[in-house]
Amino acid sequence: MATYVLVPGADGQGWYWHLVEPELRAHGHTVVTVTLPSHESAGLDAFADAIAEAVRAAAPAPPHPVVLVAQSLGGFSAPLACDRIGADRIVLVNAMVPRPGESAGEWWGNTGQADARAAYAKADGRDPDAAFDARTDFFHDVPDAVTEEALAAPQAGPPAAVFAQPWPLASWPDVPTRFLQGREDRFFPLEFQREVVRERLGIDVEVLPGGHLPALSRPRELAAELLKEA
C-alpha cells in the first residue's frame, strides 16, 4: 500500500482533492489531503511545514511508497517537503516548475505564460485579450454542481509572500518525478508545458484529457494515473 500526499494549487484547499481521495482509498491506500496556510506572511517554507504537519497528523508512520502529488502552484512548495516526509516519488499535475532562485511571481514572465495562454485562446476561437475568468480558464470542463460548490467557498487566494520568495533549492529533488498535463488546459497550455518541463526537468509530460483542474473534472482518470505509483 502507498501513501498519497495531495497538495492543492493556488486556492490552498484540501477540498480540491475530495473526488480523487475516495478513489485512492478504495484501493486501500493512505491519503493525506493538505490545506495550506492563508495568512499573508506564509511563504514557501510555511507551505512545506504544513505539508509535513499534515502527514504527521494523518499518518505518523506512512506506508511506503510516499507519493507527493502537487497541483499547479504546488509545484513550488511540494518539492521543499520531500525530505521532511520521506517522499519516494513526485507527481506534478498541470504544475509550475521553478528554477533555483526564481520566485513564483517571476515564473510567469520567465516562462512566457501570458503569451502562451493568449495564443492558445486564439487558436481555440476565444478572445486572446480577455482577462482571466475562473469559469472560462479553470472550470470550463468541470461539472456545474462542482463548479458552483467551489466558487461558493471563500476565495482567499495564496499569500503574497509565496510569490515573492525565491525558490530555495539548488536543484530539483533527487526523487523520481512524473508530470501529468491536461490536453485542454487553457491556463497552462499543453505545448507551453511540454517546453517548460523538458527544459527545466528534462522529462516529457504525460497527456491526460481535460483542463487545468482534473481532480474536479476527471477525478477517476486522474486517480487511475496516480494508482500506477502504488
UniProtKB/TrEMBL annotation:
Pfam families: Abhydrolase_6
Keyword flag Hydrolase: yes
SUPFAM superfamilies according to UniProt: alpha/beta-Hydrolases (SSF53474)
Domain of life: Bacteria
InterPro entries: AB_hydrolase_1, AB_hydrolase_fold, Sec-Metab_Biosynth_Hydrolase
Residues annotated as domain AB hydrolase-1: 5-224
UniProt keywords, alphabetically: Hydrolase
GO terms assigned for molecular function: hydrolase activity
Parts of the chain that traverse the membrane: none
Entry protein name: Alpha/beta hydrolase
Source organism (scientific name): Actinacidiphila epipremni
